Amino acid sequence: MQRTRGRAPSGGRAGALSQEVIVGAAVSLLDELGERGLTFRLLAKELNTGTGALYWHVSNKDELVDLAADQVLGHAFAAHPSLEEDAASGLRALAVAVFDALDRHPWAASHVSAPPTLANALRLLDRVGTLVARTGLPAERHFTVATAISYYITGVSAQIIAPRPTHDATVSREDFLARTARRWEELDPADYPFLTRTTQHLRDHADRDQFIAGLDLLLDGLNATAAPRPPAGDSNAW
Questions:
Q1: Which of 19, 69, 173, 231 is buried most deeply by CB count within 10 Å?
Q2: pLDDT in tens, the chain (238 residues)
């Protein structure tokens, strides 16, 4: 929603812009330059306007980046618009769509907050909750399960995706994983038996597959918990 802040800047173009247009331009700059490279001056130049006109719609850079991340999250809903499907398959498709959207915009992953406050983050939790409510789970568990799934989607995506831009931009993901794997290989197998056995898997793993593996475990547990129980005395129950 467009925000008003008293008088429009004199000579500014607040009326010619919208928050959506500003945020969309910010997404493009963030994709190109990263969070550190985004400035209001550069954004104003991109939109052929003055910085005062931008501040008419957005308070500061922190708010702008949060709104840009929320717009990215909204793109995931565009990729998965329907709720007319089985709850478990719907949750899986929605979660993967969100991961893929954040994976295309790695800077956004750590800005999708929990508990959600912005429009599309709220829609994500509401959509997850709507799908959870379609299972056989008791109503009193809907909130707990829906928030757990929603926080898995956003939190694990952030853990997997967000660290990438924090490393030296000259170090590729493959180089970083190889360097980390070598560090694991140097560990004492007596103290770290699992890590020293799995260094090659660290080098070769796909982030998306890792996300989906955890998601499927979560949804398998939901299916088992929500499955209707046989009536008492049913001879086929055992």
A1: 69
A2: 344 343 344 444 444 689 999 999 999 999 999 999 999 999 999 999 999 999 999 999 999 999 999 999 998 877 776 666 789 999 999 999 999 999 999 999 989 877 888 999 999 999 999 999 999 899 999 999 999 999 999 999 998 886 554 444 556 778 888 888 999 999 999 999 999 999 989 988 899 999 999 999 999 999 888 865 444 454 444 3
As a whole number of angstroms, the distance between CA 237 and CA 58 comes to 60
**Structural domain boundaries of the chain?**
1-59, 70-226
For the domain made up of 1-59, give the CATH fold. Arc Repressor Mutant, subunit A (1.10.10)
**pTM score, whole prediction:** 0.82
Q: Chain centroid to CA 202: how far? A: 22
- Contact between 112 and 123 (Cβ < 8 Å): no
Q: Which CATH number fits domain 70-226: 2.60.40.10, 1.10.357.10, 3.30.450.20, 3.90.960.10?
A: 1.10.357.10
